[in-house]
Amino acid sequence: MRAADPFVPSLFRVERVSRETADTITLALSPTQGTPPAFLPGQFFMLYAFGIGEIPVSVSGLSGEGPLLHTIRAVGPVSQALCQLEAGDVLGARGPYGSPWPLAQAAGSDLLLIAGGLGLAPIRSALLPALAERERYGRIALLCGARSPEGLPFGPEIGRWRSQPDLQVEVTVDHASPAWRGSVGVVPSRIPYARFAPERATAFVCGPEVMMRFTALALLGAGVAAERIFLSLERNMKCAFAVCGRCQMGPTFVCRDGPVFPYSRIARLLSLREI
Description:
Number of strands: 15
Distance between the termini: 35 Å
Radius of gyration: 18 Å
Largest sheet: 7 strands, mixed
Number of domains: 2
Structural class: alpha/beta
Strand order of the largest sheet: 10-9-8-7-11-12-15
Shape: globular
């Protein structure tokens, strides 16, 4: 239930906390009043740790199926505070905000879902509804990676996805441990192994910006059209209303115009380090 003032967060209670990696957890949140707000895959909420601040966090679950799921890595004061919450604790949340993954536009095409590190959380919000309506798409391939095997979120779920005959899953890590038996290398290196028809493929990409830049170039090289490559950005979003200017990229505001953009729109902006 949204507060009347869009700048005032509503209260949400932590229903459960799931440990993904050593520094990453998934919070299952329910509003203290009313029902969980509807959202579209790829949208984000502003999560508020009382007395510390708020950060944008994409939803990592399905809309309309239980609590809101947000997957968070402890990297700063706010995210560290959120990662210390326990079941029963209360936090603030406002949203949803932003543009979604264009799943309806991708219907009928091969679907490439490409994630680096915690980028798998927003990608998961697209993969789950795509699998729930599997007949709407052609081939579906999930390409994901992390710096190390220990840094892969949703590990058990990745194992279950791999067992599905109608879903191709390619996993890679930058640095392997002695027990790792999978691929070693950056995520874009797995694109040649994906099964898809370039002329009818749509790609969703989320991860570190350098990973997304090279992934987009690799997809272009494989024949995927720029307007069918979609990236999810999270550059310095602070207010979610395009009033603070923190996430501005030239004429574009990530919170208002994104976070999901077609590569054809932001290719030039991503190449400029000073933006």
